[in-house]
Amino acid sequence: MGIISSSIARKVAMALSGLFLVLFLGQHFTINLTSTFSPETFNEFSHFMGTNFLVQAILQPVLIFGVIFHFVMGFILEARNRSARKVSYVSYKGNTNSSWVSRNMIYTGIVVLAFLGLHFYDFWFPEIAYKYIEANPSDATRYYGELVEKFHSPVRTGLYVLSFVFLALHLYHGFASSFQSVGFNNKYARGLKKFAKVYAIVIPAGFIFIALFHHFNH
Amino acid sequence: MKLTLKIWRQENANAKGKMVTYPIDGIEDDMSFLEMLDVLNEELIAKGDDPVEFDHDCREGICGACSLQINGEPHGPDRLVTTCQLHMRKFKDGDTIVIEPFRATAFPVIKDLIVDRSSFDRIQHAGGYISVNTSGNTIDANSIPVNKHDADDSFAAATCIGCGACVAACKNASAMLFTSAKVSQYALLPQGQVEAVERVENMVRQMDLEGFGNCTNTGACEIECPKGISLENIARMNREYLSATAKG
C-alpha cells in the first residue's frame, strides 16, 4: 500500500476504481434496458448473472471491493484536502474559475452512496437471502416481476430518479477527470473526455427512463 | 474613486487575525492595486497606525512576490496578471474590496497579508534542477537537438513564477500545478531526463510532506494562474510519476 501514500497514487487509484465502476454501470444499464422491451431477455440475463459462478464468486466481490475502495478513498482525500486549508476564505468565488460539480464531488458522491444503500436494501440483500440463506429453488422467471414490483411506489421511484440526477452530476466531472488523473491528456483524450460527458448524461438518463417506464406501465 | 477595503489584519503567525474595514478616497483608475495599498499605508502611517503588510518586489509581473486573494480570487478579477499588474480601473467607485492572504496550511500567515511560501522553495530544492559538471567540460546546450514542440512546452512550463495563485485558487489548496510545471520544464528536455525518476519522486514527496491537498481536476489553478500554466503539465507529471514508480 506504499504507493497509495502519495497524492498522485491516490488520484490514480481513485480514477481507476471510478473507471471500473463506470464500466460496470454500462453493463448494468444494458441489462436493465432489456426489461423495457423484453421481460424474457431481462430474465435470461438476470438469471445468468445471478447464478454464474464467475460472476457470483469473483466479479461480484471485486465489484463490492471497488465500491468500498472508491468511497473510502474519497473520504480520505476529502479529509486531507480540508486539512490543507484550515482557515477558510471570507470571500471565495469558486464559480469564476471552476464548475460546481467539480468542487462538490464529495456531496454528489454521498448521495450516490446513500442511494447504493437503498438499492442494496431493495435488490441485493433480498437476492442474497433468497439464494444463499433461504436456499430457495432456482427460478429463472422471477426477476422481471421483482423489478416491476419495486417501482410501484412513487416515493421509491422519485428517490431513484433523484439519485440518478446526482449520479449524472458525479460522473459529469468524475469520468472525464479520471483520464487526466492517469496522465492521459492529448488530442485523443479530448475526444474521450467528450464521450465521457455524453456518457455521464445518457446512462443516468436511461436509468431514469427505466424507472419511470416501470412506474407508469404497471 | 471612493472604496471600502476589508483587509485581513494579523499581528504575527501565532496571533488571531480579523477583517478590518478601511474607507479610502482619491484612488485613480491608473493606479495599480499595490499603489492603492501604498496610498492606504501612507494614511495609516500618518495617523500613527501600523501599515498593512503585503509582499511585493518587481511590480512588473515577473517575480512572483505579490499575492493577495482579492474579492475571492487570487490576484483579483483580471486574468493572466499578477496583483501588481491589476489596475484600479477594474473596480468601480463605491466598490467594497475584500483582501485576504493566500490561504493554505502550507502557506502560514507571517503578518497581515504576507504568507510564508518557502514550501515552494523546498519542493524546488527536492529536484527542480539538473546536475551538470561545470568544471570546464560543459557541453553547449545549443549543440543538443531538442524537438521544437517540446522546447516550446518546456519554456511555457518554465514561465511559472511560483507565486502560489494555483494553491490559493484550488479548493483543496493543492500545489500540483506548480510542482508539475517545475517537473515538466526538465522532463521535456534531454538534459532533464538523466534525473527524471528521482526528480518527480522527490518533488512529489516533498509536496505531500508540506501538507498541500490533492488535485481533483477542478481546473481553477489554470484559470487563475497569472502565467497561464496549463493543466497538461499535471497530466505529464502524473505520467512521469507512474513511469518512475514502474521503474522502481
UniProtKB/TrEMBL annotation, chain A:
The keyword RNA-binding does not apply. GO terms for cellular component: membrane. Gene3D superfamilies: Fumarate reductase/succinate dehydrogenase, transmembrane subunit (1.20.1300.10). Keywords: Membrane, Transmembrane, Transmembrane helix. It comes from the Bacteria. InterPro entries: Cytochrome_b-558, SQR/QFR_C/D. The chain crosses the membrane at residues 12-33, 53-79, 100-121, 157-175, 196-216. NCBIfam families: sdhC_b558_fam. This is Succinate dehydrogenase / fumarate reductase cytochrome b subunit. It comes from Leeuwenhoekiella palythoae. The lineage of its organism: Bacteria, Pseudomonadati, Bacteroidota, Flavobacteriia, Flavobacteriales.
From TrEMBL, chain B:
Its cofactor is [3Fe-4S] cluster; [2Fe-2S] cluster. Signal peptide: none annotated. Residues 18-103 form the 2Fe-2S ferredoxin-type domain. Residues 151-181 form the 4Fe-4S ferredoxin-type domain. It holds the Pfam family Fer4_7. GO terms for biological process: aerobic respiration; respiratory electron transport chain. InterPro entries: 2Fe-2S_ferredoxin-like_sf, 2Fe-2S_ferredoxin-type, 2Fe2S_fd_BS, 4Fe4S_Fe-S-bd, Beta-grasp_dom_sf, Helical_ferredxn, SDH/FRD_Iron-Sulfur, Succ_DH/fum_Rdtase_N. It comes from the Bacteria. GO terms for molecular function: 2 iron, 2 sulfur cluster binding; electron transfer activity. Belongs to the succinate dehydrogenase/fumarate reductase iron-sulfur protein family. This is Succinate dehydrogenase / fumarate reductase iron-sulfur subunit.
